[in-house]
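Repro:
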Amino acid sequence: YVAFDGKGVAYLMDLWGTNVWRQAADGSFARIGSFKAPGIGTFGAFTDADLLSFERFSVDPQGRCYATGVTDGTADGKADGAVDGTQYVQRIARLDPATGKVEAIAGPGARLLAGSGPADGVGSANGLAVSPEGDLYVADIHGRTVRKIPAADLR
């Protein structure tokens, strides 16, 4: 995945969200964080913002990275869906490279737009973009809508 911040700096995220890189002034890339906590196994230790797979990636003007993906739909976000039959649902997480913190923004366990359905802004996020002002837009194919999360709510 590739995205650009407000200054045109490129950011890359691998398929599993385990690595996010930012392009330096000399053109090289430096790893700035991960959407996965370190731990045992492919997905590592699960946090309130952990995603099992990734679908979209965007960066705001301050260089904070956003990703959409699926989680098992429980409030704790633990990967028990394949075992107990819990339906997988969408979540949006944010990585702040300055602190390394990953936070759930929308979906189960999130501080904004908590829940899992289209009314919560993440029924099926097939598009994700950040405006120059920092507003986050989420295109929801199942909800047939575009949700706007104002920049002021993302602070």
